[in-house]
Amino acid sequence: MARKQTPLRPYFETMPEIGKALSEAEIRRSEDNVKLIKEQEDIVAQAVEQVKNAGVPAETIRQKGQMTVYDRIEYLVEPGTWLPLHTLYNPVDNEEGCTGVVDGLGKIEGKWAVIIGFDNKVMAGAWIAGQAENILKVTDIAKRLNVPLVWLTNCSGVKLMEQEEVYAGRRGSGTTFFRHAELNKLGVPILNAIYGTNPAGGGYQGISPTILLAHKDANIAVGGAGIVGGMNPKGYFDAEAAQQLIDATKGFKAKAPGRVETHFDETAYFREVHDTEEGVLDGIKEYMRTLPAYDPKFFRVAEPAAPKYAPEEIDRIVAANQKRPYDVMQVVARLVDNSEFMEYRPDYGPEVFTGVAKIDGFPVGIIGNRQGIFPKYPEYAEGAYAGVGGKHYRQGLIKQNEFVTFCGRDNLPIIWLQDTTGIDVGDLAEKAELLALGQSLIYSIEKTDLSMMCVVLRKGSAAAHYIMGGPQANENNAFTLGTPLTEIYVMHGETAAAASYARRLVKEQEAGRDLEPVIEKMNQMVKDYEEKSRPVYCAKRGFVDEIVSLPDLRNYVVAFTAANYQNPKSITPVHQMILPRIIRG
Amino acid sequence: MASVNAPMEGKVFKINVNVGDKVQMDDEIIVLEAMKMETPIYASDSGTVKEIKVKEGDSVSEDQVLLVIE
After folding, report:
1. Fewer beta carbons within 10 angstroms: which end of chain A, N or C?
2. What residues of A are in contact with residue B35 (Cβ under 8 Å)?
3. Packing angle between helix A493-510 and helix A516-531, nearest 10 degrees?
4. How would you classify the pairing of strands B22-23 and B2-5?
5. Beta-carbon neighbour count of residue A154 at 10 Å?
6. What positions of A carry a catalytic annotation?
7. Is the CB of residue A322 less than 8 Å away from at least one CB of chain B?
8. What is the set of domains in chain A, with CATH numbers?
9. Tell me: the pLDDT tens digits for A53-91?
10. pTM (global) more than 0.90
């Protein structure tokens, strides 16, 4: 009889338990916290609703016999697996209120994919301002996670009234076709479901992926039929020119170029043509079945298990009052399988925790900030000041450097849980080498070839926001999530106002002038910082890739982890992993 | 009788109870402030607040008695 087991069972099958059930008092005390979080969630939900309703009403599209991009996504992905990203992203605050593309992670035929589609409600899927950056974020995710990119193309080309906002430059819309080429070069397949009229840039959008499947009415072309010829422009328009244009347009009978008759029947670019919109998506599903993916058991170190404590309770744990501490291990206990965690050096660098957990049965590294006050720490400042949670000190930075390096060696994807106010400052901190140790952490991250996801649980501030695997870690950070409690800024508004106006206050007072105008400016600055650090603003500007409710974090963590282990480029045999042995000693 | 002590140095930011109030174990009774962070102090027992030994704004040292519950 065959005997089977998961690898390194004595380390991974059962790991130390963390967390505990909430007491009645904790539940009672946290009612207001839940309400405060709900208020923030409502603000986010309202903004999301506006984006979803951008452009013409969904019903108008459906009346034409077409599906909206949301209908297409719903048909394509397995129920319950769609995890949207960049929903509120609109970095230049364009008038459409969105970037005209909808994207996220989803499972198709049992495999994770990055999925993106043009919102055909918004100017028939035009290139609009901010869209290219959105697409580049998406191709980056597919590259980092090494999972297929699925396009739902329906692109009418440049919004001509604003071509200067989308067309030119190093990161203009054409750059996305180079990213497609790069993905193909790297072996990351791109499946393309093509609908509607796709001229010019839309044509390249159609042709640049790996596999092209078309709807019967789709076309892709170098240029569209809308560019009416036969004119003799004077360099300006007058009534005569306008009349010529009217006549030419009325007499224009040509069909759009690049139709199925050409690109299926003649050139054979399209692998398939389908009579129905659903048929194209069925074709995508069929191709997904052909793509490489490991059986999860290849990499699992234990059977998947839900956290022992409900993720919904995180709303009762993370304090909405940013000045209040909370027990972050109670959060971790509600994110990881079976609420188990193998902590690395728990007695060293207490302001941060590092350790190994299981997500959906796969091993991962987790790093995050602890909150609270740490008397008699850091050792280099004993007697001068106490350590405070959310800050980084010498030991914590050394510990994170070590842990990231070992994760790199063991190929453990890393999940960062940020709630940080920065790195300790002052002469003592400089002598303790914090500047170099922060940069060393950046080097340690870059030196690995690991995927990382970052969650800004509450504060992402100062250099700590980027040294903790933030979105600035372009090569490693697959995506960054915010929560209803996220605040991201270089420093707190009050600190910034003090830094900016302290000398001015002194001068004004010495000159015997009224301080009130300066105070007013300072308060305005505080308000400005507050408004420009809130979750919706962070998502709109792309500081985070999505705002996710605290209980929903578990779904994103599972998707990130499973996507990582779907088709990794590098493998560490589990029985040769060093980190579990180092932790056990 | 049980005393509630300061777990660290800091300032008394807020007192949520009055003498004579009934409290349940784990109720938030005092908030200390240190290093710009608020640290809530919870009742270690259920009972009645017999004496409050500090007032808002006071500086307190580690282990100092803040109030007494009977």
Report:
1. N
2. 373, 385-386, 388
3. 170
4. unpaired
5. 27
6. 158, 201, 423, 463
7. no
8. 55-222+257-290 (3.90.226.10), 296-486+534-580 (3.90.226.10), 492-532 (no CATH)
9. 999 999 999 999 999 999 999 999 999 999 999 999 999
10. yes
